[in-house]
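Fold this sequence, please.
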Amino acid sequence: MEERIRQRRALFTVLQEWLEESSLMEALVIFEDHFQGRPTIAVHDYLTRIAPLYQDRVDAKTLRRNLMQVLVTRTQDLAPDPLPQLEKFRRQQTSGPDLRFNAQPTPQQLALHSLVSAMMHKVPLTQRKQLHVHIAQQLKTRFRNGSYDLLSQYMLADNPLYLAGFDDRALRDFLSLIYVAACEVLGPVAADRWLGGCIADLRTAEPANAEAVNRYL
């Protein structure tokens, strides 16, 4: 129990610098409900999960570094336990956890995932690793903070849940940057064949998904 209180105080100490009160309480609820008791390394997963709260305000690396520093600081230097505010926030919630953290991908987003997943598996392992590096570089130039973290996590996990918070414009940019990265790794001619071949395969195997993917091309 004492360690749980210390973790909550440490999170409150750091996150209150970046989040207004209701967002801060949401972040604490998510930690207590899903990350309490997990190893410190889970901080990265936690910050990715709450990315909609802090995106475009601060990058995840800064938050992670600050949290790691505060987690080893003296207890008396931490902010007071926010449990009273947290309990009040829970009582006032009438519709369950925020939809931003429970959103499910749309059929169109699932279709895009089918295409991207197939594209990545079509590339030999050595080139796939190079492609991941170039995609990460492209993500840094096109997406910021929380959005960057979510799409990076998507590429690592191959999990469509990470796409759920994005609109069509952002996902068109995402698919475009994958193609640009492929041009750098495979060459423009091979990249064209790669993308075109994967779309053709999708049209044959999953025509409904192929139709849905058109919105991102």
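The radius of gyration is 20 Å. The mean pLDDT is 86.
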